[in-house]
Amino acid sequence: EPEVTQTPSHQVTQMGQEVILRCVPISNHLYFYWYRQILGQKVEFLVSFYNNEISEKSEIFDDQFSVERPDGSNFTLKIRSTKLEDSAMYFCASSDRRAGGYTFGSGTRLTVV
Amino acid sequence: AQSVTQLGSHVSVSEGALVLLRCNYSSSVPPYLFWYVQYPNQGLQLLLKYTSAATLVKGINGFEAEFKKSETSFHLTKPSAHMSDAAEYFCAVSEGNNDMRFGAGTRLTVKP
What we know:
The complex is a heterodimer.
Chain A: E1 5-7, E2 10-13, E3 19-24, E4 31-37, E5 43-50, E6 53-57, E7 65-68, E8 75-79, E9 88-95, E10 103-104, E11 108-112
Parallel strand pairs in A: 2-11
Antiparallel strand pairs in A: 1-3, 3-8, 4-5, 4-9, 5-6, 7-8, 9-10, 9-11
Chain B: E1 3-7, E2 10-14, E3 19-26, E4 32-38, E5 45-50, E6 56-58, E7 64-68, E8 73-78, E9 87-94, E10 101-102, E11 106-111
Parallel strand pairs in B: 2-11
Antiparallel strand pairs in B: 1-3, 3-8, 4-5, 4-9, 6-7, 7-8, 9-10, 9-11
């Protein structure tokens, strides 16, 4: 069964450093998403991406965050200057159409120290 | 904007007992509704989804959910709990072209 692949599975970074979280969505999917889950809390929507542009973003997705689909297969989330409160599990998801149910990756656990 | 409320952050059942996890939604248009399961230290796995077809939706691992518009509910059930069902369960809603929003989650514990 097709999978969404996320790398790395764990990332530890120092506060203020830039991090890039990588995702390879399912190949024929057109809609891409990032969600995050702070430890023990709910899964929160960050951003959706379609046709090479952001289609929706939450209030969490401020100027420190950016997304990119650089080469037609990867979908990345960049955090420019990480803060302690950015520590969370970040999930990438993709879908072949909106509102059809997403396939999630297994997540990247980001720890900011 | 769409939202879901999951009643009960923690549900505990005995093995073999009925599992009932509650989810109520708020949506201005007919919604799409989903249940996801998250096992410890793993990602989110789709259990089932409602997309305006049959109101009783069957999913994986013996789970099912019934869409009840009059009650704005989409409760998840399983007739007989198994130890392997212990996990966190998330209800989620999407409105047409809007993106998916998750509930706070319900942690299911299964006692031997």
